[in-house]
Amino acid sequence: MTVDIKQLLIFDFDGTLIDSVPDLADATNAMLTTLGKETYPISTIRNWIGNGSRMLVERALAGKVEVLEGELTVEEANYAEHLFFEAYKNLSGSKTVAYPDVDSGLKKLKAAGFTLALVTNKPIRFVPKILQSFGWQDLFSEVLGGDSLSTKKPDPAPLLHVCKALNVTPEQAVMIGDSRNDILAGQNANMDTFGLSYGYNYGQDIRELNPTEAFDDFAALVEYFFKNYTIDS
């Protein structure tokens, strides 16, 4: 069997490498408290995460996943998002943890010669601090946040931008993530997609989105790369 060479591994962040829900939930509830609104349990807020901070804020204000057009004013959403960012910035981040085997797995892949990149919908200003807290700041050759470009996942532009910056074709890259935004972005960029089932996908099985491959834990993903892909040296 002929196996395409995969050189570039593009990872999502929240829900793929790290579980940031506890800190995001604390910031969300702090925002809601400041606004005098009802707060929510972490189990509810978990289902609102994955489409970037603006959507999280709008869902929290509306108290549901599907926010209708016109249900919130731009001014309301802007002010709430400002409060959310302030609350999130002031958190220590101590509740954000790496998923099992992610730290060792990333380092194994890097040492094996794969090029690693990070494409997240989290605002870029919050990313370096988290990377540094895990000692991952030197693992990724490119890092993009949700506001690094004019569009974000599921638009393919961030993935194609990373490929161009690193002189890699989409056929030589893989998008790895936990949500529909990640899988759709990879499919829209005409690259293979690897889904992880443990993250934030609004209760939908990642396999329903037809990724190229799907895994239930990070160690299985890493093992798959070592078994099936070679590096073009």
UniProtKB/TrEMBL annotation:
Pathway given in the UniProt record: Organic acid metabolism; glycolate biosynthesis; glycolate from 2-phosphoglycolate: step 1/1
Keyword tags: Carbohydrate metabolism, Hydrolase, Magnesium, Metal-binding
GO cellular component, as recorded: cytosol
Catalyzed reactions per annotation: 2-phosphoglycolate + H2O = glycolate + phosphate
Cofactor dependency: Mg(2+)
InterPro entries noted in UniProt: HAD-like_hydrolase_sf, HAD-like_sf, HAD-SF_hydro_IA, HAD_2, HAD_sf, PGP-like_dom2, PGPase_prok
Binding locations of Mg(2+): 12, 14, 178
EC class (word): hydrolase
MF terms in GO: metal ion binding; phosphoglycolate phosphatase activity
Record-listed E.C. numbers: 3.1.3.18
Positions annotated as active site in the UniProt record: 12
Coiled-coil stretches noted in the UniProt entry, renumbered to this chain: none
GO terms, biological process: carbohydrate metabolic process; DNA repair; glycolate biosynthetic process
Family of the protein in this entry: Belongs to the HAD-like hydrolase superfamily. CbbY/CbbZ/Gph/YieH family.
PANTHER family per UniProt: PHOSPHOGLYCOLATE PHOSPHATASE
Protein purpose: Specifically catalyzes the dephosphorylation of 2-phosphoglycolate. Is involved in the dissimilation of the intracellular 2-phosphoglycolate formed during the DNA repair of 3'-phosphoglycolate ends, a major class of DNA lesions induced by oxidative stress.
Protein name in the entry: Phosphoglycolate phosphatase
Organism: Psychrobacter immobilis
Higher taxonomy: Bacteria, Pseudomonadati, Pseudomonadota, Gammaproteobacteria, Moraxellales
